[in-house]
User: What shape does this take?
Amino acid sequence: MADIAGVGTMNPDSVFKAMGDPTRRRILQVLARTELGVSELVEVLRVPQSSVSRHLKTLREAGLVGTRQQGTAAMYFPAGGQDGRADGLGDQLLEWLGGQELPGPVVGRLDEVVHRRRSESEAFFART
Assistant: This one.
């Protein structure tokens, strides 16, 4: 078992369990493009907040996602290898998922979320 970017020990059974659900795979596909908070994932995927949180917990436990605090929100990102190479099972799966095409409506909602976040950030710093 390998240690993934400070996320913890990766258990192959946990990885395969996590990858066995289409919603979790879609979460990883979206996170491969940009880190997001739970509410942003809810908006992009149109999945209830409780489901997104439950799926993120499974992905965290499998060592496939990491979190960082941004104010009061937790931001989620794919937990890949520290050197950027896909050398472990989880890294290879994350790399593969990141290369898979997202459906157009999901891409559109993701672009809207990222654009809105950028605009809000720019407005905040303009006021400050």
About this structure: The first strand starts at residue 3 and ends at 4. Strands lie at 3-4, 8-9, 36-37, 65-70, 73-78. Residues 1-8 have pLDDT under 50 and may be disordered.
